[in-house]
TrEMBL record:
It comes from the Eukaryota. Transmembrane segments: none annotated. This is Ras-related protein RABA3. Belongs to the small GTPase superfamily. Rab family. Coiled coil: none annotated.
Length: 178
């Protein structure tokens, strides 16, 4: 632009995947708008949100895509993954099944996404840890290590670790492409 403040050096496409109801949409709205929406969402079609951040003096626009409910019907298409440089692979720490399905999601990424895609494993709903925890953190650390993923637990509800996890992913992407 005229004053140079809206210069964008890079656009990084990031996809958010994982089972239904793990908190993908809430993570996205927490990172993009610092909001947690208590109303139910409209889930027609694929949507993305953006947030511009600075990494190593570069202006990076993160374009973060939500499946918008497609994952319910196993209909996440290869168009969704096209051009993605990063993926947030999300499970719910209170739902063992969402963790047990991770291998399937990693397979899907390996099949459809770019080979150099950077993957961040996210154990969401960390605010419910304690009585409701169904996935010990060690299990996730082991899985992440085996599969070569970064890992963080987050809470979209409280906001804990959400920015840090997205920023870590964006930094790692920058490291790959720069
Ligand atoms: P999606 O289907 O993966 O996009 O999941 P949503 O973002 O729609 O979230 C599913 C449900 O989990 C909703 O009722 C959210 O309010 C709730 N939820 C999402 N993130 C969190 C979180 O960090 N903590 C808690 N306690 N609930 C969450």
């Amino acid at each position: 632009g005229e004053n140079g403040h809206d210069r964008i050096d890079y656009v990084f496409k990031v996809v958010v995947i994982g089972d239904s109801a793990v908190g993908k949409t809430q993570l996205l709205s927490r990172f993009a708008k610092n909001e947690f929406r208590f109303d139910s969402k409209s889930t027609i079609g694929v949507e993305f949100q953006t947030r511009t951040v600075s990494i190593a003096g570069r202006v990076i626009k993160a374009q973060i895509w939500d499946t918008a409910g497609q994952e319910r019907y196993r209909a996440v298409t290869s168009a969704y993954y096209r051009g993605a440089l990063g993926a947030m692979l999300v499970y719910d720490i209170t739902k063992r099944q969402s963790f047990d399905h991770l291998a399937k999601w990693v397979e899907e990424l390996r099949a459809h996404a770019n080979h150099s895609i950077v993957i961040m494993l996210i154990g969401n709903k960390a605010d419910l840890a304690g009585d409701m925890r169904a996935v010990p953190m060690e299990n996730a650390v082991d899985f992440a290590q085996d599969q070569g993923l970064f890992f963080s637990e987050t809470s979209a509800l409280s906001g804990d670790n959400v920015d840090a996890a997205f920023l870590r992913l964006l930094e790692e992407i920058y490291g790959v492409i720069a």
